[in-house]
Each structure stands twice: as structure tokens, then as C-alpha cells.
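task queued by scheduler; priority normal; single chain, no ligands, no partner chains; default sampling; output format set to C-alpha cells
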Amino acid sequence: MKGFLILEDGTVFTGESIGSKRDSISEIVFNTSMTGYLEVLTDPSYAGQAVVMTYPLIGNYGITPDMESKRSWVDGFIVRELSRIPSNFRSKGDIRDFLREQDVPGISGIDTRKLTKILREKGTMNGMLTCNENYDLKEILPKIKDYTVGDVVSRVTADKKEVLPGKGLHVALLDLGAKNNIAKSLNDRGCRVTIYPASTSAEEILAEDLDGIMLSNGPGDPKECTGVIKEIKKLYDSNKPIFAICLGHQLMALATGLNTHKMKYGHRGGNHPVKDLATGKVYISSQNHGYVVDTDDLSPDVAVPAFVNVNDGTNEGLKYTNKNIFTVQFHPEACPGPQDSGLLFDRFINMMTGGEQ
């Protein structure tokens, strides 16, 4: 069956429909990873977005046990070529079947290089995936343009409190759309991890006997999370050790008076170099964000930059002044490099035991 991707500027791509046959309007973004498509499909940070994979062949190792959550969250999946014959000893299925089971619309057989160039030149834009060959541009373009991602954190967060047993330090994880490997990275280091829904009050979290607090990644515009920002300010004032990733990094910045803005097309992929300003070392990082923290007017009384993106100079992390708090924009749990920045979890463990950040 034919499939169509219609961008809000009127550009139309025609290919083959894959996955669900339903219509889907979402924000169109691109990811430059060569592998890890299953992690992309199941990353809650992609809620409200359709993902273009820039690598031309996707699905060649099938569906493996590498899901970052219990289901897929993307609103669409766009590829140049979809592998029809997966080959991997861990494979448990085909990506086509997975997309259908997860009700994810998709399209293959289009020029993803051309599409990516459009998004780089014009910036991230909305689009529609449809199988309807009789689409009316005059009718649907206003609907596409009016789409907003909105409050998606409430959609992807945990339904209830959950505890991962451990014999070491006790860490509260505020789930803003957390990838499974964040809790696992702490659990593997012996931590007992209590996972809280994003709507949990700071008072409830601080009532526990905690050694530290983790703020997770998540989807959407950080400024939409007004209620969560107020609770994070209380966590900041508690003087508990805090480590925050991605959306958590942005929300901590907003809670302390800093600002964020939307990037032209964001950072999404497993090959972004970030520089540790304390050591000068450069890490290869995994990233997935369309917003960034402004540091032009950053007061050293609040925080100092800790990491910077080597490609474009944008902020990739902050170390908060006179606080046991550090935050990063990238994903140390995602194993690029393959384990370049996993030591940040060790830094958090050290901080909780009274050591240096």
C-alpha cells in the first residue's frame, strides 16, 4: 500500500506504508544513529514526534530485547529502506510486525537524505503520515500547522510508584519519561531505586530515607511542565544530591531561574561529541533533545557550565554552585562510545557518599 508524508510546507513524499495504516500528525525529527532503532522506537522522549532515520537501512537485526520502555512512543517511523530479512541470534521478530503491533504508522522507500536536508535548512516542522491517496492539501495543511506536541510528560510517566530492590544507596527517580537503562544503571551499581510518577510532590519524595534524587529524560517543551518545575525547585532547596539527565537537566535550569529555547532541528543520534570542561576530555554521546538551556546570562552564583557540545557550542551540562547537583543534556545511560560517559553514574554515587562531584 502507498504511504504519504506531507510536511507543513506542502512538500509531499510518496513511499510504501509500513506499520499501522492510521493517519498521524506529529512533529518530524531526524536521528543520525546507525543502530539502536529499537531504543529509538521505545524512548518515551519521542512522544508526539515521528522519527526519520538518516541511516539508509533499518531493521537488519530485527527486534531484540533492547526496549527502553514497555511500548513504542513514537507517532511515526520514516526510513529509506526497511530490511525484510532480519539476521541476529537475539532477534525475536520483524520490525514490520512490531510497528503494526504497536500501532505505529510509518513509511519506507522515500528519499530520507532530501527530507533531512529540508529539516536542517528550514528547521523541525510538523507533518502527516497517511495512506489516503485522495488527500486534500488545502484541507489538511492547516491541521498539520496547528499541531502542537503539548503536555506529553503526563502521557509517558509511570502510573504508580515502583521499587527496584538493592542493597546499596537509596535513590529516588522522578520519571518524566525515563528510559529503562537509567534505573538499571543505578541498580547495577547496587542502588535501591524508587521510581515516582512525574506528578509526585517533592514532600512525598523527601519523606523517604533518601541518599539522592535522579531526574530523568522526557518529551516535549520543558516550559510546559509548570507543576513539575515547582516541585523540582523544592528538591533543589532540600540540599539532597541530585543528578539530572536531558529534560531533567532543562527543568532544573528553569527551576533555578534560567531559560530554555527551542533549537532549529535539535540533537538526536548516538554520535554527538561533548567536552567535559573540567578535564578537557571529549565523550561521544547519545542525544535526543529539541530544546537547550541558555547560558549567556548564567550567573556563577547559580551554576557553571560543565559540558559543551563540540559541534555547535551549546550547553550540555551544568554544575550547581554550593549544591550537590550536576545535570547533563546527553544520555550517559545510552552506551555510545560504547561506555564513554557511564562514569557520570559513578560520579553521582561518589557524590551521595560525600565525595567530590
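post-processing summary
- The first helix runs from residue 37 to 41.
- Residues 258 and 299 are 9 Å apart (CA to CA).
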